[in-house]
Specification:
- The protein is mainly beta and 215 residues long.
- The protein has one domain.
- Helix content is 0%, strand content 35%.
- Strands 1, 8, 9, 10, 11, 12, 13 and 14 form an eight-stranded mixed sheet that branches. Strands 2, 3, 4, 5, 6 and 7 form a six-stranded antiparallel sheet that branches. Strands 15-16 form a two-stranded antiparallel ribbon.
- A hairpin with a 6-residue loop joins strand 5 and strand 6 (82-85).
């Protein structure tokens, strides 16, 4: 019997780096704009925006991630004391707010697969090596944890999908050898071509550090 049971998605959980590189679990502090009006939960995908701050990346079938959000720090506007939080509460006014972000483009992360919403489902190993979309479920303001997942019912070779499935997680596989959790990576940036005079080539998607155009 598989153990433990995965009853709900939990966001992206960094576990390793591609190719057996040394993984120290390091994070980078990236600024959050004071008053930013969206919750960001532990395990959510975040992106850099043109102001140099991070926001939740709400992409599903596309994405421009800079990394995985692992909490934040800011001066609590009520107590005026420093606070370390599992999640960013929407609309918090704090000029010193910073997010802890795993921003390594080579990060591998564990993530639950769903059939839709938060319904965890099992999928055969034939999905390994394919691309997949994100399911942007709302996280919990009680635990501070994300509920983002991947949509295991719609894997494809589509280059614009933001996530690549690398391996299944055997600890939670079922008796048939199907997986409800997978090890994944960011998919690569890609180019689009608009034919004309001249033709226009545009970079799109993928980890922001790997996109030659930047943010």
């Amino acid at each position: 019997m598989a153990y433990p049971t995965v009853s709900a998605p939990y966001g992206l959980k960094p576990v390793n780096l591609i190719g057996g590189q040394v993984y120290a679990g390091s994070t980078r502090l990236l600024k959050i704009a004071s008053g930013y009006a969206a919750n960001i939960f532990y395990g959510d995908v975040v992106k850099l925006v043109s102001t140099g701050t991070v926001e939740k990346d709400t992409g599903t079938t596309t994405g421009t991630p800079v990394g995985v959000f692992l909490g934040c720090t800011y001066t609590d506007p009520s107590s005026k004391q420093p606070r370390w939080s599992q999640y960013w509460p929407t609309g918090t006014v704090a000029s010193d707010a910073q997010a802890y972000v795993v921003d390594d483009p080579d990060i591998l992360f564990k993530v639950a697969a769903v059939s839709s919403g938060t319904t965890v489902a099992f999928y055969a190993q034939t999905v390994i090596g394919l691309n997949v979309s994100l399911v942007q479920n709302s996280g919990s303001t009680t635990t501070g944890d994300s509920a983002v997942a991947i949509d295991g019912s719609a894997v494809a070779t589509t280059v614009s999908l933001p996530i690549r499935i690398i391996a299944g997680v055997p600890d939670t596989a079922n008796a048939s050898g199907e997986f409800c959790e997978f090890i994944c990576k960011w998919n690569m940036p890609y180019i689009t071509l608009a034919e004309g005079a001249p033709n226009v080539v545009t970079w799109a998607g993928g980890h922001q550090y790997l996109n030659p155009l930047g943010v």
